[in-house]
Each structure stands twice: as C-alpha cells, then as structure tokens.
Amino acid sequence: xxxxxxxxxxxxxxxxxRKNIKxxxxxxxxxxxxxxALDSGLFDEVMVSTEDEEIAEIxxxxxxxxxxxxxxxxxxxxxxxxxxxxxxxxxYKKLGQxxxxxxxxxxxxxxxxxxxxxxxMEEFAVSDADTLIPVxxxxxxxxxxxxxxxxxxxxxxxxxMDSRSQDLEAEYHDIGQFYLFxxxxxxxxxxxxIGNILPFVVDEMEVQDIDNESDWKIAEIKYQTMQNKN
Length: 230
Prior knowledge:
Blueprint: E1 3-8, E2 23-24, E3 27-28, H1 29-40, E4 45-49, H2 53-61, H3 81-94, E5 101-105, H4 114-125, E6 131-137, E7 146-149, E8 152-155, E9 172-174, E10 178-182, H5 183-189, E11 197-201, H6 213-229
Parallel strand pairs: 1-4, 1-5, 6-11
Antiparallel strand pairs: 2-3, 5-10, 6-9, 6-10, 7-8
C-alpha cells in the first residue's frame, strides 16, 4: 500500500496576496499542512504541487518534495483541484511511481493535524469508500433560510416555515481542508465529489474559511484556542 500526500499551493491569489506562504502565527501557513502530513507517518511521499519557485523553496525547507512544477493549464485561475490531482498522478507515473491512496491537503489549512489525518485514515481504511471528505454541520438549518426578493424577506423554503430547527435533518458542507481518496477510483471518476463518499465530521471550532484578512485573524484565534484545548 503506497500513499501520497499532495499539497496544492499555486502562486496566484487574488483576495490575499501570496496567501499560501503568508505568515500564520509565526511561520508560513503552508508549513502547517506539510508538517501535519509528515508527522502523521501515513505517507510514502509528501509533495507540494506549485508553479511558483518561492513556494517550492519554502515547501522543501519544511520537508516536502517538489519533483516537478505545475503546467500552465493547472496553474491558472480556472483550474480545479481535480485537474491538479489528475496531473500530479500522471506526472508521477511518468517518473515510474504509482500510489494506491492519496490525500489532497490544502495549503491554507492549519487545522489539519497529524492526529486528525490518522483518525480519518483509520476510518477510511476499514471502509469501502472511494473518498473521505471532512464536513461540518451548518450552524443554522438551511431549510429555515430567508431570501430577499423585490426588497422583501421571504422564506426560501416556505414548507419549513413552522418547523423547529431541532426537528430538521442536519445538513453539512465540505470544509475544504483535506480529502482522502483511492487513486484508481479517482482516476476513473475524474472527480472527488462523486462516487462512494465517507463523511468525516469535524467540530465547528476547527473550521474556518480564509478568504480575507478578517478570516485570517479569526483563524489565528481559533487555532490558538484549539492548541490551548489540546
């Protein structure tokens, strides 16, 4: 059983310039993903997929490999994570290396820890799933959502107008931190979000989208809280 960790870290970032290597509590945020993968001991290789030389140097400094650079196609604004992962697996095949399982880890995911990866892998290993995706429950039921139409508030789903929130089925969303997958199934499906998917539920305090400077500060506070709790 050979496993590969793929950390996707392109150089372009519109909302937070150089986001993937911006200091997060004293070190490049990318370093957290690399260290979690290495410390977990789960992977035969931990690599960073990038087209950016500075990112590549920082990745290697923290122990990851950069055996090749991204193509122009997968370095663009419209390339998807699926595109990047398929290219990485193909480039490794050209080098004579194939992997049974892989883990895509995002470079701005300091809440991914080695212990979280190990727990997820334990659940994944005993399942028949193609993919494991971490999710978190919506803090408020989407079925009770309101929308603005012609300047007025109306229920998006009026059939749930009188439903108590605690009576509604819990709904979840992808937290955008990491994905475990079997490479054969992924190369067949070409997408992570289809097929036989195993959920891995994460606490809301360990989840934070980082799209602007306010998000960044909130993420640092949450991370410090998580560290103090541990």
